[in-house]
Amino acid sequence: xxxxxxxxxxxxxxxxxxxxxxxxxxxxxxxxxxxxxxxxxxxxxxxxxxxxxxxxxxxxxxxxxxxxxxxxxxxxxxxxxxxxxxxxxxxxxxxxxxxxxxxxxxxxxxxxxxxxxxxxxxxxxxxxxxxxxxxxxxxxxxxxxxxxxxxxxxxxxxxxxxxxxxxxxxxxxxxxxxxxxxxxxxxxxxxxxxxxxxxxxxxxxxxxxxxxxxxxxxxxxxxxxxxxxxxxxxxxxxxxxxxxxxxxxxxxxxxxxxxxxxxxxxxxxxxxxxxxxxxxxxxxxxxxxxxxxxxxxxxxxxxxxxxxxxxxxxxxxxxxxxxxxxxxxxxxxx
Length: 334
What we know:
About 35% of the residues lie in helices and about 20% in strands. Strand 7, helix 6 and strand 8 form a beta-alpha-beta unit. It has a domain at about 10-105 and about 190-200 and about 220-330: 3-Layer(aba) Sandwich (Rossmann fold). The chain is α/β, with parallel strands linked by helices and about 325 residues long. The protein starts with 10 loop residues before the first strand and ends with a helix. Strands 6-7-8-3-9-10 form a six-stranded mixed sheet, sandwiched between helices. It has a four-stranded antiparallel sheet with strand order 2-1-4-5, with helices on one face. It contains ten helices and ten strands.
């Protein structure tokens, strides 16, 4: 770095506001308002908030996924302030810089395990981002890269020719993580990384992210509605409430000295006799986290597009998934 030059933060936002424009009968909706934060090099920042707080919208904007071609007019837009990711200004980012940005940012999307392409093998899924950029990529080098990534997420190489429906939810989440890290990004954005994962292996998935972060020295933004998840992996946390940042700092400091009523309420719940560390208070061992798209306004799709075009999973695929979940600890240690 040049002497006197300002440091480049992996993520830096200043008074950032994000809005979904009006579409059809749906009015404009402000998802994030006046957000200012920075993530240091090598830091893991956790972002905590209830459903509808704007977490997933923020993930889409900071990862560049919200600006991908083909999303139509329903995408969120930056209406105020600024966001800089890996040195790229996100407001009105061009296609060339967007391609450069997404090479350096790995995105583990919310509900990633359930949305893996059902017609591709594990090897093809992990290789897909590489081939999307370069169809002539050396096949032998690609096979080595894919095997290395699958091994890195603690899966046996025997899963390479298997399809998602042959794996448990926890194993599918590891495959999604391998794909997110295939380019060796300097920043990982993980949106609800334990959503849909069986409660018995959630800690293992979170711990894996922490291990890979330390091994590969990337920075990370980990988004969750579960404080237990963030305690295991984050250096600091930010708390979002109705699109506004209402807490930021080391976890204990945020809750020991809250300055916003929402954070004070969480702190009181955490010290209560029946605390479960979950701000929503609606999680249980019998009901895994589900995909949370509540910060996307009514009439929009989960990724901000309109209209909704849900694709349901095949019934026998779901049945195979449930069967594999029960056998996960026996067949492949999480």
